[in-house]
Amino acid sequence: MQATLRVQRFDPESPETSSSMQEYQIEAEDHFTVLDCLIKVREEVDPSLALRCSCRASICGSCAMKVNGHAHLACKTKMTAVAPQGEPVTIEPMGNQKVVKDLVTDSTLFWDKIRQVDPFLQPRGPEPEEEYIAPNAAMLNLITPMGCIMCGACVSDCTVLEVDKNFLGPAALAKAYRFVADPRDNADNQRLTMLNEYGGAWDCTRCYECVQACPKGVAPMERIMELRDAIQTAGMPSTIGSRHVDSFARSVARAGWLDETMLAVESWGKLNLPKLISNAPVGIRALIRGKFPKPGPLHHKRPGAENVGRIFKRHEAARSGVAAAAREQH
Amino acid sequence: MADHDVLVVGAGLAGMRAAIAAHRVGANVALMSKVHPVRSHSNAAQGGINAALRGAEDSVDSHVYDTVKGSDFLGDQDAIEFMCNEAPGEIINLEHMGVVFNRDDEGRLGTRAFGGASYARTFFVADITGQAILHVMYEQIIKSGVRSYEEWFVTDLIIEDDVCKGVVAMELLTGRVQTITAKAVILATGGIGRAFEPSTNALICTGDGIALAYRAGATLLDMEMVQYHPTTLMGNGVLLTEAARGEGAYLLNSKGERFMDGYAPKMRELASRDVVSRAEATEIEQGRGINGCVLLDLRHLGRDLIMTKLSYIHEVAQDFAIVDIVTDPVPIRPGQHYIMGGIKTDVDGRTWDDSGQARWSGVKGLFAAGEAACVSVHGGNRLGANSLLETVVFGKRTGEVAFEFAKSQPDDVSAAAHLADAERRLKAILDRPDSTGDFTAKVRLEMGEIMNEHLAVFRNEEGMAAAQTKIRELQERYAKLPVPHKGRVFNTDLIFHLELGYMLDGAEAICAAGLTRKESRGAHFRRDMPERNDAEWLVHTTAVLKDGTPEIGTLPVTITNWTPVARVY
User: Is B439 an interface residue toward A (CB < 8 Å)?
Assistant: First the structure.
């Protein structure tokens, strides 16, 4: 089949300072991946095309790039999946990273963020003579985050990093989770303290882009949610994010639906006067138009709210049971 | 003054383990790799790492003997004993570093069965053991603060007064060429699988270190010993781990028969890799294959086992063969996977003969470890899960010994002339006229195909001679090959050209060694000489570059306790 690739080109050595799109047409076999096509272009059409690739088997993490606007491993992406009718396929370098040349990006920032989470095991006390004793379930649980190949696809598509370079990002947070969830690691407190700060676990907006982009099923966002749980379970100081979670749950458990006013007030903090005052005009306008949600005790219960409350109670009981069992195992 | 005490080239498991070991004993050590360390090909090791750690049932002696037998008695037994003795300690070291090894019900390290092994002594992380260890090793590099030259490509070794004193290398992101000097250099650059097409190996496995050492005067050992893995996918040649068979998968021919019964009645699918690959090739040749493949059948293992212990190969088979291994058998065939041969070293990783007897040619100050090296522990055939073991055991040892050596070395290196030489040579390549119509990928493919045709599972004199002739012809074409892209930044066109040069040198040594060994042993199976001949060929072959061609010789095999017997599985 005929394959058409529109590839973003950028040459730092050319006087042209911006990137441009270049179209290549090649004869591709049915089983070809995007990477097979790019290699064919590089070998037979245009040896100046720069990209990273190595294993061809989605394990080395070299060939993440944007295919039709989203990050993929080129070696894991079949042409038939992205261009079933032989449509042109758009290929660009990963997002949220500086482009060095064509599809090659500078990974310095990526690794800087990984380094920030102290990405190495910090066990308690002196090493035992033999292995650490650890439940297999805990080790199996770690295989999901250990499956991360550091390809950068999640970072490329992260919508928070696009607007806030201070965010640690999905890859570094998933890496942090790998240690927080490791029963051998004893640095949870300092890790969670750091992750509870600005740029940490609470800055994810749960947009799911990283889950979608991850080629290895690491689902970084879900790991971030587990970090949030760990932060709250550890009793870390509350943040706007954790108060948001608490307030959300409280109002739904009580009334069966969301108390939007209290959600805002409690998330900012009831004593956060500057924030309350600066948002007052919004509240007043809503009030004038009759759209101000009634807060607190005035927030009426939905029919059947008691049943919702029971679901919460049952869940809490199950959770504390699990926590007690975990404590026993320690 | 030298930039470093020890410079490690290659940042896979052997290289990083060497750097960590040297760092721990106080060396100013640096890592250098043409890719980021976590992109290294150690990633692709799936099944596990061997050690006789569970004393009650298993023993180091048993591990040693299985390895000796697996090697078809070509492995040096002192080296094998060293490796197997160190193995249990290294598994514990890895576990302490943070590797998330599978556990048993008591929360202790658990094992799985593997090919050619008398006991289940393979420690593992699902079917991503290499990746899981590689990433943990890089965590340790981050922790240690060891300097890491990432995406630097080595063009030359700096040799002064017959001693290796560093490298000339190109930083890919800028194209800048620079010398990095060191009092000891360790080559841990991996294998040369890409000289074959197809291969399970990553595109970076181009035998750079093997060729660099060879060109500098080091000895290559047993280069004819090339492993074909029994279970690789048709098409792109990607690997499906031996752990599949370790967990109980069957091999079936087109009649649905478990044909290994006829070749290795006792070990069946878990006979050593050379035996299984030959059996598959025989079935296919005799018309009991399906489109040049046989079938790997995992259906009876059940979804749960597959998804917890073999999920990566489930993904790979789905992505590349469009087969769901839970419900269907997957077509597989033998494919180039590993090279047992490599740069001749002693047990401490030295490429030169430290006894002062010059029994073999080497380069003082130059060390090697991992697949690039040949100690030799794999002899004629490597057992599955012994390669990860080799990388960490000899990586560690070599890192420590290299620092000891470095301490004895003077701090006197003048690198400027080497830099000028290298730059002149690179410029000459880039200045070549682009008028031949020949190009790098074409020469590389022709090399890969001829090697895969004649240096594969079955060999003979005529075929190997044809391959040798072809490789020489390709070398002549290579000398005139243009590099059309002239840019400095990330010029992979230039890198592929240099890699092709490395591979052609290695391929020539493989052909020459293959033609030399006039018997069948391990992976080197000659149809024209199908018997093992211990009387004449219980020796290593050596290849040393003399006037541009390999000069072939032999070295004795070290035998300590185990005298060769017929190999039956």
Answer: yes
